[in-house]
């Protein structure tokens, strides 16, 4: 409304008034009078007195505005919003609290400015902005200005409309005048405004709260939009001083229980009357945000400044007792709410200093407040978990210098020794003395930093332990029960509203919250384990000390708002309640004056306020209560037992042997697992980028140092450039190494690693338990399996090298348990979700890549290993077979022909100096699992035939797709016009090639382990499989080895994305198969394999000669005389001498066999198979007696039972031999 009214005044004043001044003067005077006098207007300012963001009309794009209309989150490309109030003369200032360090432009604009998704504040003529992300200022054009900001910084925006200047400050330090000679005078009034990109967030302060850096502005007479309440400030400070003086008399104002039911106050009654008088004036002031933050919070912080534990400062507890006893419920509720909001804001935006003093100070006060039970319960109900999570976050500094890390870690260090694969070598024995000194000094600095961070973390855990307390002395819902309700809602919002940033917990907050929650849960868990279940005394003994535990479903706590000012009839209205609680309340006669209403209310209601029902009670015998002494209450009284729900209602029935103390913790633990699955794992992976950057810069610096050493003295220009690069790399490494120390202490420390490891063990045991009970497995949340796989991946990949996974307690047993889960469930028919099945398959594929985890697979029971291998050998059709194939390949890698490399050999030949080449895991074959595979294929002939047929089918498909794609790539490359090959097409092409190679390796493994599948023709499908294999091998060889062919041309293009496509991987795989059947087999097998291979019409001896670089000179021609041929002899680092000799032996054998076949009497055309015309007729069909070769009829009968020629149904096939007389 105010924005629209101001727009109308603006329009009349600038457009209509000069033309029709007499007509509109009355309207203009009326509107101006309304704004100035009805809205408490300040001189030089137009708009409502309560300045907020204009969420009704003054914005552009999609934004989320907080409930207080001061915080904003961008939710579109570039959103803009302005405030509701503008200024037209004088000096003005407002503050912006930066929540994220991304792209934002903060400053001032006029009403005429029109913004869109591309142009924001500072991009139009009458708007001015500062951008700390790009370190620039904006007013249509842009120039360098200021310095970069980070999350938690405070930007102050100052405008001097008398001098026409705009200035910005960062954390109280002036950045200088940004703009001068801005337009002022009639028609020009400036609004605070901001433009921000997607997911960036800030919070404005127009003076409703104390400014963080006011001294500079007071000195230069800058004004705030909202005038500070100086009178109330003076009054509140004076009253607080009186209060402190009265409390310094050490009078105990706590309620004390005695005589079973009578509640009395110990101390001088005059003190209480004085306190009541003070609170009569003090309480209304504590409903104002400004006074709570500036007076009360600073007073409470000053109490804790002396140090020591929070328990050593009882004054805060006494104050909170008085708040609840002598203030109206709505007053104390508003006061506590604003106090916690102020603490939360102060903690969130507190600057990082070396000792983390600000964070510790605010957390200590938060802990002290939450130690007060009634305040804790109220705040737990009022505050959602999303807000509270801020207290558990330790932000990472982006500016190392301002965070004081240079003083804390004066010496930096980074790895300087790398292996052939570019990885850090951790062997400290090869360090020089200087490197060792630097490393130790760096580690000492990291240790100092970690110790200071641990202080903050311990305070955060204390806060959570208070929120999880289930042994409250008062009645009503336990703190843990309240936390559980909020925690459920928190998880629901984060699980179901992934696109709504207003209800989502940031991932970096979630990581810290998870670790603190795990620590708190484990501490309570351990306490419950240690507690003896027999420590509770008998019921008769407990009845002597009345402490009522009331079921909240039957009775709810009352508040003072339910009671009248005069409580004379209060006791008479509650006879049943009084009897149930052990007697009526004794009311002192010295406080019966009606003028002391607060004290009067306190006396008549405070003692029973937590026990009095809101509705009349049923007769005493029907009231659901138990009488227990405080010191004897156990978790059973809060969480219930099997016959009673206790205070934690809605808990599921547990197993008989389930300890009572674990009941409520189990639900929180479920939530912790869900939190890890929602965003924690992804955030752990993101933070590794700092370690990766250190690694890359260290390699670059080492490379630069080596170039400087080799630089000739006659080239000083090159030396100068190299030294500049050296300086840049060193400075960057100094910064990153200190930042990495912070991240290792807060995210990747040993304690955090143990938390994730504990979570992994919890999930493993849960899955094992669910699986052992059968039907329970179907109801287990899917994310448990995800967390098992992801947490293991995090332990292995994210926490090293600072922490070693092998040092975790019980790591070997945990590996074996996880191996059993993956081996059993990757093909579990009970798991129907496609995503989770793929994840399990990928996890198993990764598991068998590493020696330690592969050995864990080998340690699982033999029946589980055999079942796993049987599932891996199932036919590839109608299931995701690529991952299965990769698993089999990894079990074989290191045993195959020339298959021991960790980097693709052809890349190392072409780019030996490139350290960023893709690398493979070192081979770690499993002979045990290979033996299981051989046993299964040997014993189950049907499974072996179906498995190999599916492998051959997929090989035929993958290689055909690859050839088709490289034809398209070649055609695109040969076009005269400039064109680009789609990167997705290149990726698919490389994938098809890799699949072809992996399928060939599986065939090589099968032939090596079980050669009889192909060579023992007593098996029904052996000959057909061998002929199919020979056909595919010949096709691959012909396509790859032909001179100046399609494959050669695409490989020579060296396109990005096709690095893996080369002769070596595929030719070596084919060679391995040929060597196994033509050299390493028995005499009969070699003869059969040679006859099948040579009889295939696609066989060319030249393809075999190509492997050793012995191509036909006649075919090569002069054009290729200078071309370097492929040869296995060139890869002596990867192919052994024995393997080379076997290839030569195979070539000699095939050469002789092909000569003999050529010299033999050619078969007449009538004796050739009428289908393929490549083989002799060797089969006759029944009953029609038509003939063909065995290969054609066997392949035909796989899909069709009708005769080739007459379409009669074939009932049988017999061998055919041509009669001698013919």
From TrEMBL:
* Highest taxon in the source lineage: Eukaryota
Give the organism the record lists. Answer: Cyprinus carpio carpio
Q: What's an example GO cellular component term for this entry?
A: cytoplasm
EC no. given is: 2.3.2.27
CDD domains linked: RING-HC_RNF123, SPRY_RNF123
Quaternary organization: Component of the KPC complex composed of RNF123/KPC1 and UBAC1/KPC2. Interacts with UBAC1 and CDKN1B via its N-terminal domain. Interacts with RIGI (via N-terminus) and IFIH1 (via N-terminus).
Query: What's the catalysed reaction?
Result: S-ubiquitinyl-[E2 ubiquitin-conjugating enzyme]-L-cysteine + [acceptor protein]-L-lysine = [E2 ubiquitin-conjugating enzyme]-L-cysteine + N(6)-ubiquitinyl-[acceptor protein]-L-lysine
Q: What are the protein's UniProt keywords? A: Cytoplasm, Membrane, Metal-binding, Methylation, Phosphoprotein, Transferase, Transmembrane, Transmembrane helix, Ubl conjugation, Ubl conjugation pathway, Zinc, Zinc-finger
Which lineage ranks, top first, belong to the organism behind this chain?
Answer: Eukaryota, Metazoa, Chordata, Craniata, Vertebrata
This one is known as: E3 ubiquitin-protein ligase RNF123
- Residue span, RING-type domain: 1169-1207
Query: Does the UniProt entry include the keyword Transcription?
Result: no
Transmembrane helix among keywords: yes
Q: Which residues cross the membrane?
A: 12-37
Predominant location of this chain?
cytoplasm
Which Pfam families is this protein grouped with?
SPRY, TPR_RNF123, zf-C3HC4_3
């Amino acid at each position: 409304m105010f924005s629209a009214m101001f727009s109308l005044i603006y329009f009349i004043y600038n457009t209509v008034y000069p033309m029709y001044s007499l007509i509109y003067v009355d309207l203009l005077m009326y509107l101006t009078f309304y704004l100035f006098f009805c809205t408490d207007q300040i001189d030089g300012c137009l708009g409502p007195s309560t300045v907020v963001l204009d969420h009704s009309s003054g914005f552009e794009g999609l934004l989320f505005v907080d409930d207080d209309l001061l915080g904003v989150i961008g939710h579109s490309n570039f959103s803009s919003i302005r405030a509701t109030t503008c200024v037209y003369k004088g000096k003005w200032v407002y503050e912006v609290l930066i929540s994220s360090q991304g792209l934002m432009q903060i400053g001032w604009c006029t009403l005429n400015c029109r913004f869109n998704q591309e142009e924001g504040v500072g991009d139009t003529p009458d708007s001015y902005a500062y951008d700390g992300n790009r370190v620039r200022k904006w007013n249509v054009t842009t120039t360098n200005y200021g310095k970069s900001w980070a999350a938690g910084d405070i930007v102050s925006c100052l405008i001097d409309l008398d001098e026409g200047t705009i200035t910005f400050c960062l954390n109280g330090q002036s950045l200088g005048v940004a703009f001068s000679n801005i337009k002022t005078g009639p028609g020009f009034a400036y609004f605070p405004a901001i433009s921000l990109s997607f997911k960036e967030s800030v919070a404005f302060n127009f003076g409703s709260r104390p400014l963080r850096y006011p001294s500079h502005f007071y000195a230069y007479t800058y004004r705030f939009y909202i005038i500070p309440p100086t009178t109330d400030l003076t009054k509140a400070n004076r009253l607080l001083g009186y209060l402190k003086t009265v409390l310094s008399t050490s009078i105990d104002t706590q309620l004390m229980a005695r005589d079973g039911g009578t509640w009395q106050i110990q101390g001088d009654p005059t003190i209480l009357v004085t306190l009541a008088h003070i609170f009569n004036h003090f309480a209304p002031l504590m409903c104002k945000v400004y006074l709570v933050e500036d007076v009360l919070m600073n007073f409470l912080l000053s109490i804790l400044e002396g140090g020591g534990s929070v328990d050593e400062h009882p004054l805060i507890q006494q104050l909170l007792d008085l708040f609840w006893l002598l203030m109206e419920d709505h007053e104390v509720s508003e006061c506590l709410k604003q106090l916690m909001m102020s603490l939360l804001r102060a903690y969130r935006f507190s600057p990082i200093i070396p000792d983390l003093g600000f964070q510790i100070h605010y957390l200590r006060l938060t802990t002290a407040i939450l130690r007060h039970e009634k305040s804790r319960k109220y705040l737990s109900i009022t505050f959602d978990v999303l807000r509270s999570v801020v207290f558990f976050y330790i932000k990472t500094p982006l500016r190392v210098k301002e965070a004081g890390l240079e003083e804390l870690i004066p010496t930096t260090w980074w790895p300087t020794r790398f292996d052939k694969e570019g990885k850090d070598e951790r062997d400290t024995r090869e360090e020089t003395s200087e490197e060792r000194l630097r490393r130790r000094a760096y580690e000492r600095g990291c240790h100092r930093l970690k110790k200071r961070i641990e202080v903050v973390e311990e305070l955060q855990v204390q806060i959570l332990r208070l929120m999880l307390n289930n042994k409250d002395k008062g009645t009503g819902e336990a703190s843990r029960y309240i936390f559980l309700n909020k925690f459920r809602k928190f998880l629901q919002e984060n699980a179901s509203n992934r696109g709504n940033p207003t209800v989502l917990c940031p991932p970096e907050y979630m990581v810290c919250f998870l670790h603190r929650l795990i620590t708190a849960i484990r501490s309570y868990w351990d306490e419950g384990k240690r507690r003896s279940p027999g420590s509770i005394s008998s019921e008769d003994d407990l009845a002597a000390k009345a402490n009522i535990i009331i079921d909240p479903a039957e009775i709810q706590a009352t508040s003072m708002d339910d009671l009248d000012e005069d409580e004379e009839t209060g006791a008479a209205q509650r006879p049943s309640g009084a009897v149930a609680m052990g007697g009526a309340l004794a009311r002192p006669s010295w406080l019966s004056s009606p003028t002391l209403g607060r004290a009067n209310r306190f006396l008549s209601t405070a003692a029973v306020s937590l026990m009095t029902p809101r509705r009349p009670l049923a007769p005493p015998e029907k009231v659901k209560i138990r009488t227990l002494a405080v010191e004897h209450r156990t978790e059973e009284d809060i969480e219930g037992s099997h016959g009673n729900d206790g205070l934690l209602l809605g808990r599921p029935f547990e197993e008989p042997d389930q300890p009572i103390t674990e009941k409520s913790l189990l639900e929180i633990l479920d939530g912790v697992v869900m939190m890890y699955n929602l965003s924690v794992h992804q955030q752990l992976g993101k933070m590794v980028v700092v370690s990766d950057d250190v690694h890359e810069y260290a390699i670059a610096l080492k490379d630069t140092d080596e170039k400087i050493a080799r630089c000739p003295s006659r080239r000083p220009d090159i030396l100068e450039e190299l030294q500049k690069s050296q300086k840049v790399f060193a400075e960057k490494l100094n910064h990153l190494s200190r930042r990495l120390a912070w991240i290792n202490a807060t995210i990747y420390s040993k304690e955090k690693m143990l938390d994730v490891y504990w979570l992994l063990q919890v999930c493993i045991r849960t899955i094992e338990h669910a699986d052992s009970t059968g039907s329970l497995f179907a109801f287990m949340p899917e994310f448990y399996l995800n967390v098992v796989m992801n947490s293991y991946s995090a332990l292995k990949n994210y926490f090293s090298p600072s922490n070693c996974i092998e040092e975790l307690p019980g790591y070997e047993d945990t590996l074996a348990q996880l191996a059993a889960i993956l081996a059993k469930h990757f093909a579990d028919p009970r798991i129907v979700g496609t995503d989770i099945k793929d994840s399990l398959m990928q996890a198993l594929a990764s598991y068998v890549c590493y020696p330690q985890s592969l050995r864990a697979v080998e340690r699982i029971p033999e029946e589980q290993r055999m079942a796993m291998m049987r599932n891996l050998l199932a036919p590839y059709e109608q299931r995701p077979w690529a991952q299965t194939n990769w698993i089999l390949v990894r079990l074989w890698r290191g045993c195959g022909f020339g298959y021991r490399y960790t980097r693709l050999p052809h890349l190392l030949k072409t780019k030996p100096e490139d350290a960023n080449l893709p690398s493979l895991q070192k081979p770690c074959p499993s002979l045990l699992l290979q033996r299981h595979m051989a046993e299964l294929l040997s014993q189950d002939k049907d499974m072996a035939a179906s498995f190999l047929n599916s492998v051959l089918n997929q090989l035929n498909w993958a290689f055909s797709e690859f050839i088709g794609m490289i034809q398209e790539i070649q055609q695109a490359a040969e076009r005269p016009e400039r064109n680009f090959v789609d990167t997705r097409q290149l990726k698919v092409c490389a994938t098809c090639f890799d699949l072809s190679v992996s399928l060939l390796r599986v065939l090589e493994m099968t032939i090596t382990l079980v050669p009889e599948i192909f060579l023992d023709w007593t098996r029904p499908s052996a000959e057909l499989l061998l002929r199919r294999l020979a056909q595919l091998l010949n096709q691959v060889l012909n396509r790859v080895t032909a001179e100046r062919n399609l494959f050669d041309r695409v490989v020579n293009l060296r396109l990005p994305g096709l690095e893996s496509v080369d002769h070596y991987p595929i030719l070596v795989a084919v060679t391995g198969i040929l060597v196994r059947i033509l050299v390493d087999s028995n005499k009969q097998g070699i003869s059969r394999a040679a006859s099948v291979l040579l009889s295939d019409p696609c066989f060319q001896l030249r393809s075999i000669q190509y492997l050793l670089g012995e191509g036909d000179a006649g075919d090569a021609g002069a054009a290729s005389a200078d071309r370097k041929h492929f040869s296995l002899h060139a890869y002596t680092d990867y192919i052994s001498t024995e393997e080379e000799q076997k290839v030569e032996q195979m070539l000699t054998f095939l050469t002789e066999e092909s000569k003999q076949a050529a010299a033999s009497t050619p078969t007449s055309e009538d004796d050739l198979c009428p289908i393929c015309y490549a083989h002799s007729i060797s089969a006759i069909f029944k009953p029609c007696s038509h003939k063909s070769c065995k290969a054609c009829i066997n392949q035909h009968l796989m899909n069709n039972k009708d005769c080739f020629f007459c379409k009669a149904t074939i009932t049988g096939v017999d061998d055919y031999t041509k009669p001698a007389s013919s």
